[in-house]
Amino acid sequence: MKHLAIIPGDGIGKEVIEAGLEVFDAVAEISTFDYDGELFDIGADRYLRTGELLTDEDIDGLRKKDAIFFGAIGDPKVRPGILEQGVLLKMRAVFDQYINMRPVTSWFPFVPLKREVPFNMTFLRENTEDFYMGAGGRFGPSFGGKNVSLKVKRELYELEVDMKADPSNDDDFAFEIGFLSKKGITRFADYACRFAMARGDDKITLVDKSNVITHMYGMQRDIFREKADQYGLELEFMFVDAMAMAMVVRPETFGTVAVPNLFGDILTDLGAQLQGGLGMGCSGNINPEGLSMFEPIHGSAPDIAGRGIANPIAAILAGQMLLEDQGYPGEGKLIHNAVTECLRENKTTPDLGGKMTTEQVGKAIADKIREGKSR
Ligand code: NAD
Ligand code: IPM
Ligand code: MN
What we know:
- The protein has 375 residues and is an alpha/beta fold.
- The chain contains eleven helices and 14 strands.
- It folds into three domains: 1-102 and 277-375, Isopropylmalate Dehydrogenase; 112-129 and 180-274, Phosphotransferase system, sorbose subfamily IIB component (Fructose Permease, 3-Layer(aba) Sandwich), CATH 3.40.35; 131-177, no CATH class.
- Nicotinamide-adenine-dinucleotide binds next to helix 1 and helix 4.
- 3-isopropylmalic acid (IPM) is lined by residues 84, 88-89, 265, 297, 299.
């Protein structure tokens, strides 16, 4: 019996998680997989009601679970960053989910590229460092003080940075600092190498912008080179701008792609669109020794929330990743096959050209799984 934390969150997060649970139920009916799900009311509604984001009590409750199934966060009534940093990024940091795994697979016929070449990339996005540390501030006449003190806490370390800011004019400034640590890069590189070996790739692609951001990404290159040599893997470097182009022109030439946090966020939305749209991109926030969290990569989509037309497949495929992570690869495959069949039969939401609702697609996929048993 697996104990799952269910966090639907905001907007379409709620709708797609519902469909995901329908699919889990179908899998549980026909296989040895069994689960109980505890619902956690974390997100905009509770924040607007009580002012709470991710509380210590939430963290204690979540810690007791085997895995987290997460929808999406974000609400137009809340200033950007509050929920994103206070809930999602905090969870990734607190549970030290340092790998964000995002597969990018050619789901034909929904790939929008001219050439019909199959591709199968896995983006491993570093998930705890880079420009996602929340280490920034503002100074200048409107903000008082010229000295800025920063504190950031991660599982691997705590950092304090004091800056003396003395601009020669009376302008206001804002800044955001990125950090990479040797320990952080080393475990990231280690994971990427092990993953590539397990996948049967002989090459890793490391994406960065070390021609401009020379310190962080220069150090990252050095450590990746050392690690790749240790594992006997070829290491290919790509600048992120060129990578964005190459993903469109020759996606079939990439397998395991390691990418720092911010660029990974951006490239994987592009990756989702290569698969048919944001409704197809799934992800796992992985702590290989701890609590992992599985979610679609899309957000709460306020523009379509409440209409029942969100594509639930990204969430359902995140469910597949959850099962595989929890030791149920066969059950994961059931989900994958059911999704493939529904796509083939055009049982899809409007974003993929279909006419079905979120709930209907979830049910169609669940039915495919149930039928599989009787065949
Ligand atoms: P978004 O991913 O929510 O939506 C972008 C576009 O894609 C919208 O037009 C939306 O309708 C469409 N879309 C997304 N998911 C879809 C689906 N499953 N089916 C069909 N269409 C889908 O990004 P946004 O609009 O930039 O952000 C909205 C909010 O979500 C913001 O508050 C943002 O911070 C938050 N956000 C949260 C997460 C997360 O929780 N992991 C991820 C991204 C954005
Ligand atoms: C994602 C999202 C998040 C990120 C936001 C909501 C903090 O865009 O999971 O891709 O930037 O990581
Ligand atoms: Mn994103």
